[in-house]
Amino acid sequence: MKILVTGGCGYIGSHTVIELLENNYEVIIIDNFSNSKRDVLDKIKIITNKNFIFYEGDVCDNSILEKIFSENFIDGVIHFAGFKAVGESVEKPLMYYRNNLDATLSLLETMNKFNCKKIVFSSSATVYGDAKEAKFVETIKKGTPSNPYGKTKTVIEDILEDLYTSDPTWSITMLRYFNPVGSHASGLIGDDPSGIPNNLMPYILRVAVGELECLTIFGNDYDTPDGTCIRDYIHVVDLAKGHIKALDQLFNLESGIKIYNLGSGKGVSVTEIVTTFERVNNLKLNYRYGERRSGDLPNICADPSLALKELNWKTEKTLEDMCKDAYNFIQMQKNSIKGD
Ligand code: WQD
């Protein structure tokens, strides 16, 4: 089976490409390196010792997509390509709507033209918005995301629903990620955002290696056991494996449209992440408690039971694995920069 992976050099995309190759899928990647590095291609090759095809380009560009589909017989697509920084999306909403929606529309139009109608879409728990549930189930009514990034995910889910309604020969699976953290055990690839990280774990890593002075924990006055926000953290390798399970289902079932939460189902507070990171990596982090971050919800946690029931998928890695693998990655990064 030949799979096109859009954004395949990104954090989750690259980990998924590795799982695809290790499961004997043939892989084609398209990436424009807007939020990834070219050397990830070499690292995928080192890790898997497998070949794959790469096209440098923007998924918004129909011509490159038509080139890819005319030069390769593609059985299915996993669509990761898109901007994903919540804070940046608030500052630059037009850039987010233009990029994330155009990329998806160009991709779906091209897939339709070449009669390739199997897609796994990288969605997000942000589509639940401010829903008040203790654990999010796929069937609850989506809330309103607090930022344009989350709203693009909601709109793309709606586009896919409408596409399926218009043409039920499509096979569409939407995967709603909770909080992906960690890295491949090799330490060669990981979450490496440019600039000052918005997300918790990449920020912790920069403090751990002395690149940033101090972590601010945004609020410890929430209505949670230790006062800090609770999230459902999932190891990126578990997340990648969930895509393989979703693809396997896509090729084994008749057409249809499905949505799955990919989370552990276990809520962990910010303070728990910090103390676990310190313990497993045997270090002290410099952190302080500060004001709440606007838009944060006290508790976001998955009910992942549908993915277990229908995909036979559940997380296997622990919070300790996430903290250890994440730190291993940043240390490998530092050493390679120093030329060790
Ligand atoms: C986690 C917790 C912060 C940084 C985001 C996106 C979501 C998804 C995952 C793509 C929160 C706290 C953070 C810091 C802190 N991405 N925090 N100090 O906001 O749950 O979800 O990433 O789909 O779309 O919204 O993740 O890592 O930013 O925050 O205290 O310096 O860590 O307040 O409680 P979040 P996060």
End-to-end Cα distance, whole Å, is 39 Å
Bound molecules: UDP-4-deoxy-4-formamido-beta-L-arabinopyranose
Strand proportion: 15-25%
Number of strands: 13
Low-confidence stretches: none
Helix content: 40-55%
Please state the average pLDDT score.
Answer: 96
Q: Which strand order does the major sheet show?
A: 3-2-1-4-5-6-11
The radius of gyration is: 19 Å
Q: Quick one: biggest sheet?
A: 7 strands, parallel
Shape: globular
By secondary-structure content and strand pairing, the structural class works out as: alpha/beta
Quick overview of this protein structure:
The chain is of the alpha/beta class. It contains eleven helices and 13 strands. β5 (118-124), α6 (148-166) and β6 form a beta-alpha-beta unit.
